[in-house]
Amino acid sequence: MIAALRRFVSRRVGRRLFLLFIVSAFLPLAALAALSFMQLRDMLLQQGEQRLAATAKGYAMTLFERLLLASDVAAAAAGRGAGPPATGSLARLSLHSLARVEPDGRVVAVFGNPPLEPLAPAVRERIEEGKSVVTVKPATGGARVTITVPTTRGGEGAAVAEILPEYLWQPELFPTETDFCVLEEKSRVMLFCSTKIPDDVLAATVPAPSEVPSALLATRWLRDGEPQRSIAWTQFLRYAFETPDWVVVASQPESFQLARLLEYQHIYVPVVLLALLIVGWLTIRQARSIVGPVVQLAARARGISRNDFESRVEMDRQDEFGELASAFNQMSSQLGRQFAALTALSEIDRLILSTPDTAQVVRTVLERMRAVVPAHFIGVTLFDHDAPGHAHSYFSETNSTEGLAYARATLRTEDYELLGRNPDGAWVALVPGSRGILGVLAERGLKVAYIQPIVWRDVPCGALALGYRDETSGGDEERRQARDFADRVAVAVSSAWRDEQLYQQAHFDPLTGLPNRLLLKDRLTQEIARGQREQRRFALLFIDIDRFKNVNDTLGHTAGDAVLAEAGRRIQGCVRDSDTVARLGGDEFTVILTNVHDPQDAGHVAEEIVAMLSESFEIDGQSTFLSASVGIVAYPEDGTTAEDLLRNADTAMYRAKAAGRATVVFFEETMNAEAVSRLMLDRDLRQAITKGEIAMHYQPLLDLRTGVVCGAEALMRWNHPEHGPIPPARFVPVAEESGFIDELGRFALDEACARMKAWRAEGLPVKRVSVNVSPRQLRKVGIVALVQQAADGAGIPHECLEIEITEGLLIEHADSVEGLLRGLSASGVKIALDDFGTGFSSLAYLNRFPIDTIKIDRVFIDGLGYKRDSEAIVVAIIAMSHALGKSVTAEGVESAAQLEMLTEFGCDSIQGYFVGRPMPAAEFVAFVRNRAPEKATAPILPFLSR
């Protein structure tokens, strides 16, 4: 060959032909190769930019979802009031620290080391609106992201949580070869960056706040000599979190986006070189016949540059020119299929990003594969994850004019085994009578099929099938293209299923499967709109399971969850399919009864629900009996908005509980007024101490043996600036319900101890001061230390302080309070049993507990003088108490006759209006000094008559 070439170029004609070959064949082919290569490179870079933009957007949306989840977790963890969440809980996994903002503005740490500064006015104003606030503070290596969320309606309480960086950014989940940086749009503060990006690149990539994110272009830059591509996406946060928008910058190596170009280069370059070698050899061998074939080949090359892959080089020759033409035609067909496949895949990628409709993606896949893959049958089967064992099949026959078809398929065990054994695809011989995913192919007389599994998260979720009537059909190229299309379908399926899963998580209760509060409000709003449009009425039932806490306390939370799930099923069984049953949280359920003609119909349904929930719950072989309280509102009589209806139904439910539970109550406007009044009273009460509206009054306690005022009972009084004096019977129950009674109890202890210290310093003959302690406060851990701390802080002996408890506390919580009472008694604090005789009095309680004083209830004192049974009871109580070594105090003494009889019965001391009303501290001191007898043994009646 070398000798022939030497002989050829040694001649002038040969040299001219060789130069002509160089000019007419080699240069055009080289230019065509370079042009095609550059066009393909530009197209791949454009597709890479689109995918990179989608990745940046997806990561930005993920950050937004994590902020939402963190706000819900912080609100739930701070609002429970049960102390720090357990290790391994969602709060510990997502939050670095958490603090609770009390309604009075105090910031209390729940766990971690949160900042305890009061909320800024702007943040407090937004929290009162029921909205969350995200705050970003620069820090070494990133930024600290803090979220403030309301925990109660009206913004009385809030939670401040610092989000864990590893939870928010999660760099371990980044896509392959992709880096992210997140910065604040307005201030350009860097929040997080998985890799260093130069400032000038960020300045060129990140848009100005006025630019539209979708109009951004990628920025090209170098890292260690390697080209990189970066693109930014702006995530809107101002409305949801009142913070400047975040900008997500996603970066990828340019080589990662051009990975497919290498595959193309390995095919294209050898083919072009082969063509040049063949043309050169034929030029040497057949100089006279070279011009025609070269012209044809050059024309065909220009057609390829115009994306014309259908035309062919017609050259019927049995020599090298014929082979070259055949190779060129084959290359053109292969390039055509590759370009068609790339175009189809690009279109599918755009479709996946733009629509969650999996069926539309499948239809596009089938349409494009018909033009790319020379199969007689193309089908896509998707498993129905809501109905295991069933699938949807979409298919198309190349020779059919009917277009796409659809059929349902029943899956067999063999189908799952086939896909599981062959994750990379398999050829399957078809036989008549095949079922499952092969049934559609066998029914059409196909002989062989290539089955490519569609895999999501390593689990088959469908299959792509190529069917052939000839057993020798099909090749590697078809298999490779089938895998590419199957991957795209898997992405579409995963996206649709993920969206469906997110919807389920956002709108349905995971325990019962019922709609949650969010979906309930949406359906309630729709029902209100339908009622306004069609003049239809409906009713809303608010259901609360009575004493459900006992189930969790006695049987455990697992049993409690089972009871809630069973309760939801029973409630659903009492209503129609058109009605909505929802779980608001805890043991609260709601029911929307549509198209109700008479509110009494809703009452009948509610009574049926109460009856069903009153039946036995069988949990782990144990029978548990519960009941339910139901509040009912009717639209439009009891409210015209979702919030009004829910609030009024809640009010009616609490009225049902107050009526004795297991009761159905309809809402009335008076209930709402009372609820609002109690809410305002609770709000004002929480500020009354700091405003100086709460004061302690003291009622004197008279020793009947000496006539000396030996003690005083501290009683709380509230002088409201607008409503005037509010009796304790009004505000104490409100404080008990809201939990503010603990704060009031601490205030009463501190004030009484401080007053006792002043009396001792003034030489007042008062031996002790009595303070009432609520059952809630006494049952709390640390009450012993709290009482001792109050006495020690005032510097008075513990014997000067007396704690008054009710008889009902001993009966209902005997085991839990016995240790606390013994601890108080051991420290020297006196204990008085108040209102004795009104409950289930028992000598066993008096003998069991360390009680120093028995206070006879005024109901028996009132009967002295005209009720013999009252006299007998008083005499018995005094005798019984003295026998047990207890002192006796009579309450509510209001006459001299009562005083004489109590003195005769041997009572130790008395208190009541006959001795003195509750009075401010200064008046009490004057009362004691002005009326103190000159001698301890002076008659009592003259003393009182002064």
From TrEMBL:
Question: What GO cellular-component annotations does this UniProt entry give?
Answer: membrane
GO BP of this protein: cellular response to nitric oxide; signal transduction
Q: Which CDD domains match?
A: EAL, GGDEF, HAMP
Which molecular function term from Gene Ontology is one that the record holds?
cyclic-guanylate-specific phosphodiesterase activity
Tell me the ranges covered by the GGDEF domain, including all copies: 536-669
What range(s) does the HAMP domain occupy? 288-340
Q: Which residues form the EAL domain?
A: 678-932
Q: Which SUPFAM superfamilies match?
A: EAL domain-like, GAF domain-like, HAMP domain-like, Nucleotide cyclase
Reaction(s) catalysed (UniProt annotation): 3',3'-c-di-GMP + H2O = 5'-phosphoguanylyl(3'->5')guanosine + H(+)
- Protein name (database record): Diguanylate cyclase (GGDEF) domain-containing protein
